[in-house]
Amino acid sequence: MAVFISATGTDVGKSFFSALLMAKYGDSYGLKYFKPIQTGSEDDRAAVQGLTGLPESSFLKNYYSFSFAGSPHYASELEKIPVDTEELVRHLYSIREERIVIEGAGGLLVPLTRSFLTIDLIQKSEIPLVLVVPVSLGAINHSLLSLEAIQKRNIDCKGIYFLGTPDDTTEDNVRTILEWSGAKFLGSFFFDSKERLSREKFTADCVPRFDSDGLLKDLFL
What we know:
With about 220 residues, the chain is α/β, with parallel strands linked by helices.
């Protein structure tokens, strides 16, 4: 089964989380990584592949790639290449039973066009969602707003995963978000988000610590 990875905003760590999933379970489950829409010069597909060291065959090509680092709706307008959301929905719906880690662009309410949001894509493609949540100050408001939007649209949210550099608010943030939302806790991973990780350190230090309780295995069954 495919799983859609979204977050409470940009730069929360969706690509890093996707890389951890791919590195941990890519070989054993035959996972593939797919980012339908990429904006900006930094290529998340290449970054995930670089960290994991998995073969090119494990990475599907982006459906759209825009050079401007901004919201997809605006980036596509600048390049005069409209995003065909109906085609994108059909494509994602057709692969929903495959074992694919699908990474969204930015947060849930990021527009793909002037009339279509990322959360609409998730809802219409009927792909289960994992929400990546930061652990630092400000996480509660952004997380609860995102989870309210998910619940309002009856999206199958498999749970939330906490990620990032902890601070003095982290312990209570996690507790409060879980208590208020009722969402399933899928785990947490604390790291220095400013550190540039080599593949060697990622493989040796991060992957063994990730999902040590095996809570994420069921996503792909």
